[in-house]
Design goal:
five-stranded antiparallel sheet, GMP Synthetase, Chain A, domain 3, Rossmann fold
Length: 524
């Protein structure tokens, strides 16, 4: 009998081997893995009863919750495709995603009811709008309680069937759908388990939103090994500390901005945090000083990691290799803040502009390329863009790095003009288009500049049309009408001209140099 490489097997294993264990904690809700499995099965039957077919997209607009964790199995095991939405996107971006994906059902928290009301006329393919809280009409609990408790997945689900679809901001204004197959998700989880070595003693706090590539894969890895999920609606430093204290959390992940907020919380010393084994840092580069502060103030190790939505997501971790375990603290912190080395099953290298492999000498700078079972199947409806980035079996990340003699990668710059601020991807081109649309603007360039709180933030350099006069506040206020808050430039500088190359392309590298002078790398 051929077994399909599918994450559905992780839920089945948890039910069989850890059915009586409390596997999910979400506020006052405490579910055993058996209860969790039954709820996921009821969700599958409910979707079938609604007439949702194999391959159709089911979207989710909401916070971290046990319901979303159930959807990671309940939607996928009946053959549909789960599409978690980034709640920080603009209504226009969300409407684009729903239409581009031809979503047929949308689950949502009541906080987003006004947005959903507007989407009803903007997303004509959606047949079912389902509230996650009790409300007039169809809502989650009534839906699954009316469905049968026993469910058997279709026997013909294939490894390469689409299971999840995540949209990521790229270098164009419109988000791109990253296609994730059953095989991608299954093998990524096994790679992460082989690298991180979690077991059923782990208590994982879900501080990362599960719409960010399923919270770095944790719905699958934690369920597979029978560990415990602790849900938190959204990151709040005080609530995080309280949950670590009361639920004896062993692991959680943060972007650097979260870590800064946590270690500077005024009540930090009031909480018992000794259960923590280590925390993971990703989404943006972490300075060694942050690693040091986490260890000294929280009392556990902190390690960096790296991945992209397109790699579903994790590629590397910065654990200290055993033969380096006696490094002085300063050197150890430096390594733990690096991009790290590949997980088992991930092949990585750096290439030059002609796709030639470069030496791992700690000096040569090249684009990170990767080939692995967790590289996406491609971009939804974008075959040319897929072919541009996956060449000869290697996925080209757009991130520039060096690799030292111990195999540790360090990202030093970005080939593509993506700004990562507080763990969120911001397309500089999208911000530029918003600024360019102002009638007084002649030219502009948006670059990343270092920021102590957010890692890096967008800054706009603007050339005005002759005779025009506006203030930076005027232009920022204008951007508020075009962009979500996290994409708005934090500063605007008016200049007489912008440096250009021979083809007329604005030289952003030259613009960035002024602001990054003195930094070891061009990401913060």
């Amino acid at each position: 009998m051929n077994l399909t490489l599918t994450p559905i097997r992780f839920k089945d294993r948890a039910v069989q081997e850890f059915g009586n264990k409390i596997g999910i904690i979400d506020g006052d809700v405490r579910l055993t893995y058996r209860e969790f499995g039954q709820r996921a099965d009821r969700l599958s039957n409910a979707l079938v009863d609604l007439g949702i077919n194999r391959g159709e997209r089911v979207a989710w607009l909401g916070y971290n919750s046990h319901q979303l964790l159930e959807a990671y199995y309940g939607v996928v095991q009946m053959g549909a495709v789960l599409l978690p939405l980034n709640i920080r996107l603009t209504p226009e971006e969300i409407a684009f995603i729903l239409n581009d994906s031809e979503t047929v059902a949308l689950f949502y928290n009541q906080d987003f009811a006004p947005l959903v009301a507007a989407l009803r006329s903007q997303a004509p393919t959606i047949k079912h709008f389902i509230s996650l809280e009790e409300a007039d009409g169809l809502h989650y609990e009534s839906l699954i309680s009316a469905a049968r408790a026993d469910f058997k997945p279709p026997p013909d689900i294939q490894d390469d069937d689409l299971a999840e679809l995540f949209y990521t901001s790229g270098t164009t204004a419109n988000p791109k759908g990253v296609m994730m197959t059953h095989r991608n998700l299954y093998l990524h989880a096994l790679q992460a388990i082989a690298g991180h070595k979690p077991d059923d003693k782990v208590v994982q706090l879900h501080t990362i939103p599960l719409f960010h590539v399923n919270g770095w894969g944790t719905p699958h890895t934690i369920t597979c090994v029978g560990a415990r999920h602790v849900m938190i609606k959204k990151f709040d430093p005080g609530e995080v500390l309280q949950l670590i204290h009361t639920e004896r959390v062993t692991h959680f992940s943060m972007v650097p901005t979260m870590a800064v907020a946590l270690i500077h919380h005024p009540d930090l010393e009031k909480y018992e945090l000794s259960s923590l084994e280590y925390v993971g840092l990703g989404g943006a580069a972490s300075p060694p000083d942050l690693i040091r502060e986490i260890e000294q103030k929280i009392g556990c190790r902190a390690y960096g990691g790296y991945g992209l939505t397109e790699t579903i997501p994790q590629l590397t971790f910065s654990f200290i290799k055993d033969h380096l375990k006696d490094l002085p603290d300063e050197e150890r912190w430096r390594r733990q803040a690096m991009t790290g080395y590949p997980l088992p099953g991930v092949e990585m290298s750096i290439m030059d502009a002609d796709d030639n492999h470069l030496p791992h000498d700690g000096v040569s700078v090249g684009e990170i390329v990767v080939r692995a079972d967790n590289v996406m199947a491609g971009y939804w409806k974008l075959e040319e863009e897929t072919a541009r980035l996956i060449r000869d079996g290697w996925f080209h990340t757009g991130d520039m790095a060096v690799v030292d003699k111990e195999g540790y990668y360090l990202i030093v710059d970005r080939k593509k003009d993506i700004i990562i601020s507080g763990g969120e991807n911001i397309s500089s081109i999208e911000v530029e288009k918003a600024i360019y649309s102002h009638p007084s603007v002649l030219e502009c360039a948006v670059i990343a500049v270092p920021d102590d709180k957010w890692g890096e933030v967008p800054k706009a350099l603007v050339v005005l049309k002759p005779g025009e006069a506006i203030t930076d506040k005027d232009l920022i206020d204008y951007c508020r009408t075009k962009l979500p808050g996290f994409k708005i430039p934090k500063s605007i500088e008016f200049v007489d001209s912008l440096p250009k190359g021979g083809t007329g392309k604005i030289l952003k590298k030259e613009l960035r140099e002024k602001y990054w002078s003195g930094y070891e790398k061009r990401v913060h």
